[in-house]
Amino acid sequence: MRLPTQLQTILGKAFEGQAPSKEECVYLLKVPEDAIEASAIKTVADAVTRQRFHNTGILLGQIGIETAPCSGNCGFCVFGKDHTNLPTGRLSLDEIRKRAQGFMAGGDLYALFLMTMHEFDLDWLLKVISDVRATMTSHTQIVVNIGDFDLAAARRLKDAGVSGAYHVCRLREGIDTSLSPDARKATLKVIKDAGMDLYYCCEPVGPEHSAEEMAEQIFVGFDYGCFQHAAMRRVYLSGAPLAHHGQLTERRLAQVVAVITLAALACPETQSIAVHEPNLLGLAAGANTVYAETGANPRDVELDTAGHRGADMAACRKMLYETGFTSLRRGDDAGISLDVEYLYQAP
Ligand code: SF4
After folding, report:
1. Each residue of 134-190: pLDDT tens digit?
2. Looking at residue 314, what is its pLDDT?
3. Model confidence at 303: pLDDT above 90
4. Distance 298 CA to ligand 1 centre (A)
5. Does the C-beta of 72 come closer than 6 Å to ligand 1?
6. Would you say the CB of residue 75 lies under 6 angstroms from ligand 1?
7. Residue 74 Cα, ligand 1 centroid: separation in angstroms?
8. Phi/psi of residue 204, each to 5°?
9. Domains, in order of start, for the chain
10. What pLDDT shows up at residue 40?
């Protein structure tokens, strides 16, 4: 069996550390998920990640701290204001602290993510951050996943102890959402200008997205020097405006992860590749990072995703172990050996 010459050349160069161009990524994304060539792409991406990140995985945990009909109105999200059935609510400070402590119990959480709706109360968020920060181990960072914000807000967040922000100009932003792509990109710049880590993602990928539009959206993350790139599929939500498009398989999602992994070779700032939601195929195709989740989740009809769609820390840790990662990176960059003994003694 021989791989097509073009594929052999792209993968050979990537194995030597040279990233594929945007056009080459389009070619890689067009490979059918059931072709043996797709397996070759994933295998090379897996090897690239093991080498680049020294076979080290990262565990992250996100708490969705509030729910409301959201003005972002994303057609794939359970909170979109025109189709949501979920009530408005907030977790109490006590509850947020308790959930944060649960994520941190193993001592191996790289960063705690706090997620709000698109519109958020900055003063309340800052109060939550300072309250949680005061009870956290110093080796776990805080990252926000919130709506658009300006440089003044970014500086206040940073002063309160926030290290980074998850932010994305999504696939079909402004078409499948009510948000402005320019405003989303302005926030990407703000995050970088404030000196925070940018957590980006190719999301929410569905069967309707062409290879060309995916490649365009993926490269925006590199344009802004993302600390983390990732891929997330759109999860089928019955009744959501985009439900009729269906949902990708985890196998196809892993191929998208693999292409991002190879393309990220051109971005020296990238230190992590994630797959959402956590799964073994993505972690064997270039991803080295997964998120545990509790509280609100745009992909879940349950108000608390813990015990439902959201994986817990033990499940995420086990996935990293089972996919062969041999250490974990903490938020202070210290490494923890990930072996079977550690796995069984961790909470
Ligand atoms: S994905 Fe975020 S911005 Fe969009 S509707 Fe859901 S909560 Fe709002």
Report:
1. 999 999 999 999 999 999 999 999 999 999 999 999 999 999 999 999 999 999 999
2. 97
3. no
4. 7
5. yes
6. no
7. 6
8. -90, 110
9. 55-250+267-276+288-345 (3.20.20.70)
10. 98
Q: How far is CA 88 from CA 94, 117, 121, 237, in A?
A: 18, 11, 14, 19
Q: Is the peptide bond before 204 cis (omega within 30 degrees of 0)?
A: yes
157 CA from centroid of ligand 1 (Å)? 20
Residue in 213, 210, 131, 226 with CA at minimum distance from that of residue 173: 213
* Interval between CA 40 and ligand 1 midpoint (Å): 35
Q: Which residue has the tokens 């102890």?
A: 161
Q: How many Å apart are CA 32 and CA 255, to the nearest integer?
A: 9
- For residue 24, say if its preceding peptide bond is cis, omega within 30 degrees of 0: no
State if residue 80 touches ligand 1 by the CB under 6 angstroms criterion.
yes
Average pLDDT, the chain: 97
343 within 8 A of 318, measured Cβ to Cβ = yes
DSSP codes joined into one string, 48-101: HHHHHTTTEEEEEEEEE-EE--BTT--TT-TTBTTT--PPPEE--HHHHHHHHH
Instruction: For residues 1 and 127, give the distance between their C-alpha atoms in angstroms, rounded to a whole number.
Output: 60
pTM higher than 0.85 for the full model? yes
Listed in sequence order, the residues at least 6 apart from 39 whose beta carbon sits closer than 8 Å to its beta carbon are none
Q: If you measure from the C-alpha of residue 278 to the centroid of ligand 1, how many angstroms do you get, rounded to a whole number?
A: 20
Cβ–ligand 1 contact at 20 (below 6 Å):
no
pLDDT at 1 over 90: no
- pLDDT score at 271: 98
Task: Give residue-wise pLDDT tens across range 195-219.
Answer: 999 999 999 999 999 999 999 999 9
Phi/psi of residue 226, each to 5°?
Answer: -65, 140
Atom of ligand 1 nearest to the CA of 80: 5
Nearest atom in ligand 1 to 118's CA: 3
For 123, residues 6+ apart whose C-beta sits below 8 A from its C-beta are none
What the block records as the tokens of 229 is 């790139």
pLDDT in tens, 90-124: 999 999 999 999 999 999 999 999 999 999 999 99
